[in-house]
Sequence to fold (161 residues):
Amino acid sequence: MAEIKDQPPPVPNTREASWDLVLQDIKDRDKIGQERYGTRLQPLNGRDTLVDLYQELLDAVVYARTLIAEGWRERAMAAEQKLAARSYVGPVAFSSDGLRQQRIAAKMSQGALADHLEVSRNTVIAWESGKSEPSASKLAMAATLFVCHIADFFEPLKNAP
Fold:
């Protein structure tokens, strides 16, 4: 079981502020609720708000513990170290092996990857067999999913000058 340790203070960086992400998520959830139920969330709406909150918090705790168990932080740190150790600079090409290795390391099926990337299983099979290549946006989604660097999906171009 992964050990839970005290956290160091946050380090400023160039990523979008979490508050901005949360505020956008709130707007998106409100819109989904309006579309799904025809009304915004309001007090005294016939639902037990405390039960709804409790169930949402249980889900959040399960998701958080799952991430800890999956070793997401260790995988991210290993990916950063691997990237820092690279010395190759030059033309690169998509590596079907790189995608396959990341998927297998994550213990994910081709079908599950397809679901996460919103493509068909046959599309993932074509990528992994080298018959086609994913778009940059699908590679970015895969890198986020696998907690790796997008460079892990590329290799030096063969016969490059």
Notes: The chain has a mean pLDDT of 85.
